[in-house]
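Internal ticket #5521
Category: modeling
Description: The requester needs a full-assembly model to guide mutagenesis choices. All entity lines are attached below as received. Residue total reported by intake: 645.
Assigned to: D.W.
Attached entities:
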Amino acid sequence: MESMIHGVEGFMYPNEIELQWSILIVLYPYITGLVAGAFILASLERVFNVEEVKPTYRLALLTALAFLLVAPLPLQLHLGRPERAFEMFLTPHTTSAMAMFGFVYLWYLMAVLVLEIWLDYRKEIVLRARRSTGGMRQLYRAMALWSDNISERSLDIDDKLGRFITILGVPSAFLLHGYVGFIFGSIKANPWWSTPVMPVVFLFSAMVSGIALVMLVYMVACWMRGTAIDMRCLDTIARYLLYTFIIDFALEMLDLIHRIYEADESFKTLDFMVHSRLYFPHIIVQIVLGTILPIGLLGLVQLMRLTESQRKGFYATAGVLTLIGIFAMRWNVVIGGQLFSKSFLGYTTYKLDFATREGLLSATIILLLPFLILWVLVKLLPPWSHQEPAV
Amino acid sequence: MQTDRREFLKSTGAFIVLTSAAALAWDSLVAGTPEAASTYKLHDHWWAFAVDIEKCIGCGNCVRACKAENNVPLEPYYFRTWVERYHVPRGDIERPEVDSPNGGYDGFPLRYQPGDGSKNFFVPKLCNHCSHSPCTQVCPVGATFESPDGAVLVDKTYCLGCRYCVQACPYGCRFIDPRTMTVDKCSLCYHRITKGLTTACCETCPTGARMLGDLKNPKDPMHEFLRNHKILVLKPQMATGAKLYYNGLDGSVR
């Protein structure tokens, strides 16, 4: 018996010894965050007229779509009875935040992202359908919904509608990820989660991770295609990354300081957890390596005069660290929130399996899948055709 | 083919409305005629549970009876009810030592010596059958629900196994049954109480420390118990409308 509850320190309620939400549930907010962030970066160009980031507009949209298509997968894989998942659409329980997932997701996927990409690409899809032959022709014709109309007037409508949808998309992206934060923030039984700042923190960390992702994808894509990076674009993205990161960090610090100062009944327990089993993922990876260091690097670029290649190095390092840091943040929220007992008297351990349904292998595959989808999407709908970077 | 907008809206509208109507009709056909009603009337009852800590001797009868009656997995991390042992040295209610070996299933091995200046007692726990239960609030499909008679129940044939309710319960009363991958918890022995019997744990408690009560029955002894004792619920700050009432609940218990 003692060996079975190995890894428990102090007292846990007996039913708490097994962790409920695994690494797959860590991936869920991570992936939706990347989606929301990438989309918001794309909107910068269209809604807020930040012309500099135009070279990444389409790439950001395709990245968002690739990740959004994978977002429900970890959830589905985690369910005890995956075959019943569809019940959430048929008989949603209206007081449940989770029940809204399917609707928020579908809205975002179909009404916002797919439609915006379609409208933006429609002219090219039609042209490609005219150009290509055989199976590809049929595919492009289907993607154009068998329409061949690219008259001035229809393109004008596309553009107007596309703009409207992007404007609608910004609050939708906020909704998608703010809502994911609410799933955790609204659980009053869990003091590590239960805070009204949770949706806001999730939102800003989503923007941070999404911007960093698109920045890296853009750099890698340019390198793979052998084209020069538009430095004006990259500098602008990095600047926006810095700004959102500072807001994100400030919000997290606000939450932390508030917790330390209030020191409510849960404080001692959580404080001990952060200084013991959560020390490495929280203090070292999330805060030092994943937040302070990238903010420092991005800040240095603003303060110092660096050459182009130096800046690229700084941006790439900061981008990778950011993605690791935000992953650690999701990990610390989801896993950290289950390591302590709701009796505040003990701690348990999360044991990450490898080749099981919820193991590291599945998680790795789920995390690589969007890149594969993105590769296919980029082949089908090249995002660089109408705006080659100035060489 | 030319379809005008009105025509399109009419046909899609009809399609959507008619398919869902057919789905509803099919559902009611498959469900068949409901079983003939028993004499049990949901609205005539309001179930509650009381525990007298001063009477509990930590024998673990209730835990064993519950596991046997409700076919609960025997592993040490699945319990519909369990017993905790509290050891409060020098009355320091901030730092109790708590243990619950195998949930109290095998009783408690002797660990503390009498006369060491500490306070020792057992706390049996089970679902609080809250009337504003956070677990039913979060269930995405309504597979767990508050019955009109005050019991919080789970429809195992509908549960997705998403585990959100397990996270939402402040008392740690829920677990995922590894055989069905759906959630399970104390049902107040619903199959028994609706036939006029008491729960398995109450039935087997040798000291009468556990008591099932129907608050809508004016003659139920529960009323007197609640009136004559200093009653408290677990974690009252959670405001869950808990109906698991304790007599003699120490400030150290969480």
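Resolution: model delivered.
Comment from assignee: The interface with chain B takes residues 1, 4-5, 11-18, 20-21, 75, 78-81, 84-85, 87-88, 91-93, 95-99, 101, 183, 187-190, 337-338, 341-345 of chain A (CB under 8 Å).
Ticket closed.
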